[in-house]
Prior knowledge:
The chain has two domains: 15-241, 3-Layer(aba) Sandwich (Leucine Aminopeptidase, subunit E, domain 1); 250-557, Aminopeptidase (3-Layer(aba) Sandwich). It has helices at 74-82, 122-138, 159-168, 224-249, 257-271, 280-285, 289-295, 350-364, 410-421, 438-443, 455-468, 480-483, 502-511, 548-557, and strands at 15-20, 52-60, 63-65, 95-99, 108-116, 143-147, 198-201, 213-218, 274-278, 303-309, 319-330, 370-380, 392-394, 400-402, 428-433, 448-452, 472-474, 492-493, 520-524. The chain is an alpha/beta fold. The strands form three sheets. Strands 1, 2, 3, 4, 5, 6, 7 and 8 form an eight-stranded mixed beta sheet that branches. An eight-stranded mixed beta sheet has the order 9-10-12-11-15-19-16-17, sandwiched between helices. It has a three-stranded mixed beta sheet with strand order 13-14-18, with helices on one face.
Amino acid sequence: MKPQTSSSRASSFPELLFVYGGSETVQDSKTKSRSKGSAQKKQDASGSEIDTEVVAVFTEGGKLHVPGDAAPYFSLLGRLATHAQTPFAGRQGTSLFVRFGGERGIENVLLAGMGAVSELTEEKARQAGGAAWIRAVSEKSASVRILADTFAGAQKAYFRPWLEGFLLNAYQFKKYRSEGVKPAAEGSSKKGTKKEAQSTAVPRSHFQGMPTRIEVFSTDAASRFQLSEDVEWASAMAEYVNLTRDLSNEPSNAGTPTFFAETLERIAKALGVKATTLTEADAGRERMNLYLAVGQGSEREGRIVILDYQPKATKNAKTVVLVGKGVTFDSGGISLKPGLRMEDMKHDMTGAATAAAATFLAARMKAENRVVAILGFTENMPSGTALQPGNIIKARSGKTVEIINTDAEGRLILADLLDFSSEFDPSLVVDIATLTGAVSTALGKQCAALFGNDLGVVSLLKRIGDSAGERLWELPLWDEYLHDMRSDVADLKNTCNDSLGGTIRAAVFLKQFVKKGTPWAHIDIAAMGFHVSHLNYIPKRGASGLYVRTLARLILDYGKSNAT
């Protein structure tokens, strides 16, 4: 498989290879293999030296245990287990880095602690992978080989989340640093020989550091195809999570509505996803007056991007519509925000970036459902032409809205886009947005808020989110919350003059613009879109990239018999 790259990337990310080292009799055109080398120093599929092998170490009955084919390390583990002051007990998330200096055919080994299988979860495995990446970088490993067969037996289920954590941690945004970004060394496989390998390139992103090459190695014929799928998913997942991070981290003087529209069009074209961009004039013809009102104070024109992925000849395909808020800078408008940390408001387009990346990831994984992403990009700025409190605006749906606070602008954008989503005859609509500051007060920075009018969809989203480590907590959509949103002079108010139930009120407002009978969910990621510090595989500052995986899996699973 040829490396996949994105034209939006400015520098190279480590290349990821899946290498099978078993019998040639199980080779096929989909997954190629390489034979084990006999040289003193182990080499990757391109002939380059591997300096660090990563071995998953579990515990059984309090003893260290390596399942699968890792024979060279059994004696090492034996010595560690019997050493009176051993520095490594194999606990989940711990690691030990041992330098061999080439004496064992490898320079170093990184023992990655997984703990007891009985206590493992997918999220614990993901965090163990994140910890292993941190250790590999701190030890300046230039290239690593992950011995996938050490995830054998009952441990196999934890390899994919472990690899996710390993790769999700491999991100830095240094596009605008004056020292620039040094591209990672490019590797290539030797074609036409028995030492061929399947290569799936991890994304080109704003990354500077080591390792520059990652090899997943296995000799287990029975696990070969599953491992190939795991690597393919992890590679694509890392690329599009990092795309979300890249887009969200763009400063607003560069990350304008036009910039995002052009960037997404370029990526969509490379993937075979149809992309349509609506100008403000187009939005006017669609009567999207709420969307237009938000941006009327800005000198920069807004853009609405519609991404449309169509599966090939799939019977019974569902149409999943994602709606994303894309406020490229939110000053609050006339209801101006406080100056403290206003720079973070460049991240107010993270919902749109997340929806776009999830669409691309689903397309890369050849989802059997159709996906339409409707992304509303604009700025919310104060000026002589800006939206004012007290204004009354007619929505695309025909409802009128009295503006109480211009900083409650995201719901105005989403209201018109949710109404517009009905044009695509959706089986399911999900909107995602950094919508309310109140969600941080309600839930902190441990999960996103979830609302929905369909119990099956809400249950499915929660299950997927739990599995992905992207937790969702359902809040109520009771009609009583709408009473406070009734206006004396219009059909609705966009908010109230108090801080009670702000996240719920925003969701109840959005519900009024969803076509009756359409399954719908709303995800408020205002607390989780950026500056998430409690997950070791997520950057502590800047965009998190969370919920791309949840939305992509929703697209892949929706409508299946084991889903909903």
